Amino acid sequence: MLQKIENPPYAEMLLAWYDRHHRDLPWRTSPPMTAKGLRANPYHVWLSEVMLQQTTVQAVKPYFAKFLAQWPRVEDLAAAPSEDVMAAWAGLGYYARARNLKKCAEAVANAHGGVFPDTEEGLKALPGIGDYTAAAIAAIAFNRQAAVLDGNVERVISRLFCIDAPLPGSKGAMRAKVAEITPANRPGDFAQAMMDLGATICTPKRPACALCPYNSHCQALDHDEPERFPVKAAKKDKPVRVGAAFVAVNNTGEILLRRRTETGLLGGMTEVPTTAWTARIDGGTDTEHAPFDADWEAAGTIVHVFTHFELRLSIFRARVSGSIPFGANDEWWEPITNLDAQALPTVMKKAIEQAVPLAFNKSRKT
């Protein structure tokens, strides 16, 4: 067994591993390039970091490519119609991120001449950018010695130093440890190396400790219990909310859609008419709460799990002839062949598919 070093060169050890084993990601500048002084594009770093919040790398890759194809510069994103941005984001979840993305792009374009601030403080002043995202952009794009702490880094740090206070209360101690070992040289590569280590080696279950550059210095491994970390507070049971969704189809194969208000859950997204459920209250679950009179028939139930609650929607469908009394200009008939182009969140896609099986297959074939 290797003799333990009292003050291991944590940064050097990890960067040597990263130089050999880093992931190639579309928003990343590789170590050979950073060694030449090249930095990642701040716009690309910001866009990827916002998308990666609560979302996997594999899920983000196609969205990242799609956004850059439509809006190559932050000024392009700032000038885009909000409904186009929400439509491009549809399916990625956590839709407040998309609304803040648009606001932040507008702030960078209009107040900063299209140039992102290069400090944590300046970045945190932008809409939707918190401590983690500001630190990540500052380190990766601007070579600032910032302490970057995401879920992967929390796992590495809590195991490396046996930080056994439960999350989220232990975040401060973890951030302090990250700050302590983040080097002045190559802080962006170090931050990304920590992320890669947590994503590929120091995984939640069955970590590959034998391959870890820190295996001779990891306190959790020394106690033979790395999977115990990070310690998390006991989860509370998610409340269950109920409501109903109404899928109306007209004689020409169009589905009635409407746009949600800009604020609140799924704000600004597209939906079929529903009852007034929220994360805190139930909505009606029968046709007495339908948006207009029609021959509604039950089409089953869907379940969708949000971060803080579970939603169960009773689905009703109706074939509608002629016109209906639209609301305040927020409703329209959309051809079923064009559904994929709409800003429909996953829960609404589930509702439509429950009422009209293969609806999105028809959309994708056009």
Automatic annotation (TrEMBL):
Assigned protein family: Belongs to the Nth/MutY family.
Stored NCBIfam families: mutY
Its job: Adenine glycosylase active on G-A mispairs. MutY also corrects error-prone DNA synthesis past GO lesions which are due to the oxidatively damaged form of guanine: 7,8-dihydro-8-oxoguanine (8-oxo-dGTP).
Biological classification of the source: Bacteria, Pseudomonadati, Pseudomonadota, Alphaproteobacteria, Hyphomicrobiales
This protein's record includes keyword Iron-sulfur: yes
GO molecular function annotations of the record: 4 iron, 4 sulfur cluster binding; 8-oxo-7,8-dihydroguanine DNA N-glycosylase activity; adenine/guanine mispair binding; metal ion binding; oxidized purine DNA binding; purine-specific mismatch base pair DNA N-glycosylase activity
Co-factor(s): [4Fe-4S] cluster
Gene source species: Rhizobium skierniewicense
Protein name: Adenine DNA glycosylase
Biological processes per GO annotation: base-excision repair; mismatch repair
Coiled-coil regions listed: none
Lineage: superkingdom: Bacteria
Cofactor note (record): Binds 1 [4Fe-4S] cluster.
InterPro entries per UniProt: A/G_AdeGlyc_MutY, DNA_glycosylase, Endonuclease-III-like_CS2, Endouclease-III_FeS-bd_BS, HhH-GPD_domain, HhH_base_excis_C, HhH_motif, MIG/MutY
Catalytic activity: Hydrolyzes free adenine bases from 7,8-dihydro-8-oxoguanine:adenine mismatched double-stranded DNA, leaving an apurinic site
Record keyword Ion transport present: no
Domain annotation HhH-GPD: ranges: 51-200
CDD domains, per database record: ENDO3c (cd00056), NUDIX_DNA_Glycosylase_C-MutY (cd03431)
Keywords: 4Fe-4S, DNA damage, DNA repair, Glycosidase, Hydrolase, Iron, Iron-sulfur, Metal-binding
Pfam family for this entry, one: NUDIX_4
Enzyme class: hydrolase
Enzyme Commission number(s): 3.2.2.31
